[in-house]
Sequence to fold (468 residues):
Amino acid sequence: MKPFMDEDFLLSNETSARLYHNYAKSMPILDYHCHLNPREIAKDRHFENITRLWLEGDHYKWRLLRANGIDEEYITGDADDKEKFLKWAETLEKAIGNPLYHWSHLELKRYFGYDGILSSKTASYVWDFCNEILKEPDMSARSLIKNSNVSLICTTDDPIDSLKWHEELNADSNFDVTVLPTWRPDRAFQITNPAYGDYLLSLGESSHLKITSFQTLCLALKRRMGFFQEMGCRISDHSFSYIAYHPCTADDVEAIFLKILDERPITEEEILQFQTALLNFLGRQYHKLGWAMQLHYGVKRNNHEKQLKRLGPDTGFDSIGVTAPLNELADFLNVLALTNELPKTVIYSLNPNDNAAIDTIIGCFQDESAIGKIQHGSAWWFNDHYEGMREHLTSLASNGLLGNFIGMLTDSRSFVSYTRHEYFRRILCDLVGTWVEKGQYPDDHEILSKMITDICYHNALKYFRFSV
Fold:
């Protein structure tokens, strides 16, 4: 029987182990998409206890706690932090086959030096053990980043954000990890939100422009993109239920926007036409700026209305959406490609059934302007587990060029989530190593080492034009 989480964890053969230990393991981490709070980095937050570090804001863990029948008081409520931790330990021991079981133990091992198992039997000891270590100065937010071998972080930021914490970090010579903003204009698309008018006022104030038309909306966003560009932004990000392509004329979209300003009802078709027109405009601007465009889709959000009202969004009540109309995704990419204004684009679907379709769509829009110009983003959210990562990588390899893949990201709000990169790298090396062991690819150390280190780090560095 193989021991739990030994040095060759998830590595099933000699070649896989060699690829991981000799090449992947020591590569820096380029976290090009996450939800870390830049204020907490700038202020170098110290965590009072492991509950604050581990369970605060982590809706992955919240979902499992609810599945174990734990009262909300011990999840997002005001229960004692130790009691919350004990409930998590009680839940975790049942999570066989769930990536949270592996991630949690990797985090305990890498950040706390704890090689044991977390369960209801050991929970009190682990609580005391970890909290003693958290008192050490090198367990702050910045130290956790540095000790994870992270070279660059891209946070997720609204167009109206002042980016004051990024400015503070840029001016701080004591912290040499690059922290850049990412442009996330989702709220500009949310025209059915009752607070949309207030958002337009805030956007207008931040861009020194009164927004009275679709044209002035675009101008306001363009001005803010210029500011983000000055602050080092190189990536945009969008989240949709699906990527729509419902074109309309310039006059039509102005008429739709006027309805929005007047708070008159709009149809579902008009919503999709507005979304198409705005994303089309933004895609062309990204191309001009040299930014990459990330498109996240396939999620059905806020399914539990009662809990949404009680706890707000992003609290663990989202799910995989039905298969999207991928013909429209292809049509959207096509309209930008027709005028040579298609930016580098990374496409993520929350629905794993879309893997092969995405891989064949991106193959239609590759060109000489960049290696792997259109990317199938890493297995996302409900797919970033063992099977999901293997399925994603296998599909990408089967239908395209795996060697050009830009690799893993954390997509996390936690400062100890960087073990997800280790998890990904072990799975990647095992998959490639197994193909080699089966005689499906030559055992050429030079080519294999370059492929592994490129996927782990160098491809993303070149793709996003980062300087670290």
Notes: The longest strand covers residues 235-240. The CA atoms of residues 234 and 464 lie 7 Å apart. The radius of gyration is 23 Å. Strands lie at 29-31, 150-154, 178-180, 235-240, 292-297, 299-300, 319-320, 344-349, 374-376.
